[in-house]
Amino acid sequence: MEQRAESIEHILHDAEEGKIHLSEGQIHNLENQAKYFHEHAGHESTHSKMAIIIIFALIAFQFVLLWWKKHHYRSYQATTTIGLWIIPFAFALQSGMKQFAIVWVLFTILNSWIIYKATRKPLHHMTPKVVYKWYWVIYQISYVTGIIGYGMMFLTFMGFGVTPPKEGEEPKTSFLVTWGLTFLTYGVYFGILGRDFVEFCTESMASTLGYYTKEGFPRKHLRLGVCAICGIHVSNAISTIDAHGHLQAPVVLQPSPNGAPIEPSIKLNCGHEFHEECIRGWCLIGKKDMCPYCKEKVDLRAFKTNPWDTTQQLYLNLLDALRYMIVWQPVIMGLVQFGFYMTGLD
């Protein structure tokens, strides 16, 4: 590092004598680099130890999180959701990201009202549909926003919107990069946050009705023709799932009185019937792959009616995987940095 510092000082010396031309920003950056290399000269062995500690901490914490998630899922999920909700907002306030903070506050206000509705007792029969509709809208917005952001970043890598800097000027960040990162960040973050909150609301609503319990038997007996998700009788237009996991066309067993519109229903392989909107919300939005009443596995292929559904399911899986990077990665690195500070490994 000492050699790097000397090389930078030679460049700065040549700039002072007029042999080479550097802008004020370039000179400032080189001075900071030279200062950094001087301060860290001879610390190569320390840096190697720090790198080993970071790698070990990441692996060890991964095992701890997996054990916690397996044996105490509810506390793990609650802690993750709270961290996902609070940590980015605190970082935005500290960094002066007013735009993100405003969007976060608006989302929190509306989402708090949805959570309030989902946790009321007794539960209104329209609440599950409202809850799933809200999180479906959040998911669709996050999905489209993420795709737009990714498209902008891709165009930047292809050279669109990039203006070569003039001689003596510092390169400027393309507006496609700035807005691409913004859209991508918003889409991923609020998509993940919505996924966590809808899981909490799903279990709360189902438990309130009494037809679902996470473990053991339900508190209430499910009568024939009653939807266990909203507690209302299903319609006579019932679709079934065949042996190949395909959803069959609905069969109207009895016409609706007075010509009122019939809400489509689905009969699972276990024999229980649900409103199509309810069971789709339970399985695709609420992240459940089982019957709410008997817990028999549900073939999710039946609810993917077009290629976009499969693509969006992959996007949902990606959101679940990114949760670790957003919540636990900063926590782990913060603990490691605190350990470096306490042991003098600066």
TrEMBL record:
* Major localization class: membrane
What is the species listed in this Swiss-Prot or TrEMBL entry? Linnemannia gamsii
Q: Where is the signal peptide?
A: none
One Pfam family recorded for the sequence = zf-RING_2
- Keyword Zinc-finger set for record: yes
| Annotated TM spans | 50-68, 75-93, 99-116, 137-162, 174-193, 321-342
The family database entries (PANTHER family) matched by this protein are listed as:
FI05221P, RNF121 PROTEIN
List locations, semicolon-separated. Membrane
Q: Which InterPro entries match?
A: RNF121/RNF175, Znf_RING, Znf_RING/FYVE/PHD
Protein known as = RING-type domain-containing protein
